[in-house]
Amino acid sequence: MAETKREIERKYEAGPGGKLPSLAKVAGVSSVIDKGITELDAVYYDTEDLRLAASSRTLRRRTGGDDAGWHLKLPVSTGVRDEVHAPLSAAVPRVLAGLVRSRVRERQLVPVVRLRSERDLRHLVDAAGALLAEVSIDAVQAERLTEGGGSTAWTEIEVELADGVDPAFLDKVEKRLRKAGIEPATSASKLARALAETGLAPIEPIAPAKPVSAGEHVLAYVRAQRDALVALDPAVRQDQPDSVHQMRVATRRMRSAFRSYGKILDRTVTDPIGEELKWLAGELGLDRDREVLTERIQTAVAELPRALTAGPVRTRLRIWSAARRSGTKRHVTAVLDGKRYLALLDTLDALLAEPPVLPAAGKAPAGVLAKAVLRDHRKLADHIRRALDVPSSPERDLEMHEARKKAKRTRYAAELATPALGKPAKAMASYAKSLQGLLGEHQDSVMCREALREIAAQASAAGENSFTYGLLYGREERAAADCERDLPALSPQEHPEYASGLHEVK
User: Fold this and answer.
1) Do the Cβ atoms of 85 and 3 come closer than 8 Å?
2) Superfamily of 3-198 according to CATH
3) For 446, what's the count of Cα atoms within 13 Å in the CB-facing half-sphere?
4) What are the CA-CA distances from residue 77 to residues 7, 80, 227 (Å)?
5) What are the strands, taking DSSP E only, across 87-130?
6) Contact of 413 with 373, CB cutoff 8 Å
7) Predicted confidence (pLDDT) per residue in 445-495, tens digit
8) Cα–Cα dist 355/347, whole Å
9) pLDDT digits over 409-435, tens only?
10) By three-state DSSP, how is residue 156 classified?
């Protein structure tokens, strides 16, 4: 079983003779406790082309010390990493291999570097004896394990903040170290330094140039969504809040870009990729819609006076919610480990490496991007017009749902165009987001009414009172009617000024 710990630390070049200045003078420190010397032996794993190192991730198997085992370090921000720990085993633990799957794909993880360290450890504690930080002097010997060999050695100082301590404490320690002539390390990690000094530094990805042409703007947006998919993969596997939703959003944004900007990227190439993205979003969201509906109904029930809650409503709702769960986490993990998903990531890499651009891609962004946004805006207006022309019925609900999808596409198209077109595109994105929210509320009401009918039927079959479900159904009908009433005031016909700015750009 893996455990995750937030690690906040700073590294420094060792001073003359590898000695520390007195840290008892650091504000807040009552005493410095010598914890002795520990021998650490760590083997770092990566692909042959060092994909983990290139993305600032480290995977190691370490013995010695009080946290022997497998450690995967995932970057959070400068000096902050999440360390996922798993017990010692001969092979890379499956859970850790999964957390780097989106980076390594089908490539094998092999030993690349061995680091043996002699760690001289001290604890900085406050007046109550509580730990503030661990400070160590590490004498490191590094050996490359891949073809060509190579070795190096150095000494460094590491300061790791204790759990729950204000990160500003590290500034106080650094001030004292700098005063003693000790400077921050130039390498972000021991592994990075070992790789660099043994001639095995990873190939750093070339940062894309600032987009100029229409095609470059579209590709920059697609690349950002591909990067989001890869980066969110471990968060989804760890079941972190909102991670599944954000991963689905990345798939939708990419699909939207392919469809909205079909004059720039060849849709004969991107349409099949879009279908795979749609598949992935569907797999990720198998239980998401039911969770959203359950939360909506639970909230509505909680707001009812007790006298209007007839029968075992909460119990019935829990039974309904659990009935069709697919084992979300296990299912999603299987999808992310599957060949189809990994092939999709490889396909996206290939598309960005050799994009299927059309002639319009080389043009200035103003006209090309503005036309695409306006085209989506016109489709949105058509669907809203049809929805308002249809009497209240399932047909209106369907048109409202289609309008919602067009509002979302218009929003994403405008967001993509904003870096190039500025305020007109930003205003359109904001407007489309407002429409999307209103239409989304209407769709949630439609889905909620369907769920309430199903729950009421189950309750009735079990001999339970179904009064409360009918009451909630009526409230959802009223919520949908409110959305329909508000829609004309937000419709594109009523706000042509949002398109006028883009017409001027075009």
Assistant:
1) yes
2) Hypothetical Protein Pfu-838710-001 (2.40.320.10)
3) 19
4) 11, 5, 16
5) 110-125
6) yes
7) 999 999 999 999 999 999 999 999 999 999 999 999 999 999 998 888 888
8) 11
9) 999 999 999 999 999 999 999 999 999
10) strand
